[in-house]
Write a structure and sequence with these properties.
137 residues; mainly alpha; two-stranded parallel ribbon
């Protein structure tokens, strides 16, 4: 099984880093202001967590492709977006996010998984499902 890992000073940066060397790689971002800014300024806005296709198109229409341009055109963003969206975009472009996690409360779901080769062998499928059910229980 492959796994990618992002190592950074906060969850936002770690998530962005984990998407960089897929599959089965890791990216480390030193937790210094200089390194974070250097990393973020080159980053396309689409890589920001929470910027989807629609916001990407709006930003592209404003001539904003990279996080550096989010900072440069902060006034235009303030005028064209809600206050919350403005704050989100500026903080995200700078790599700023909360570094503590609130207690999630009650766990809403649990899961187990296993990848195995394509097969039409009913007994093998039944065996794997039984194993997964036992593990989940």
């Amino acid at each position: 099984m492959t796994a990618s890992c992002g190592i950074a000073g906060n969850k936002l940066l770690a998530k962005i880093c984990s998407d960089m060397n897929k599959p089965d790689g890791q990216t480390y971002l030193p937790a210094t202001d200089e390194e974070i800014l250097k990393f973020m300024m080159k980053l396309p806005v689409r890589k920001l967590i929470g910027v989807g296709k629609v916001n990407e198109q709006i930003l592209l229409g404003m001539g904003i492709e990279k996080c550096e341009q989010v900072i440069e055109k902060a006034i235009d963003i303030f005028i064209n977006f809600t206050e919350n969206a403005f704050e989100f975009l500026i903080k995200s472009a700078l790599g700023v996010a909360k570094s503590h996690h609130d207690d999630c409360g009650i766990k809403k779901s649990i899961n187990v998984s296993q990848t195995f080769p394509v097969t039409s062998d009913f007994e093998l499928i039944k065996q794997k499902l039984t194993e997964l059910c036992e593990e989940l229980a």
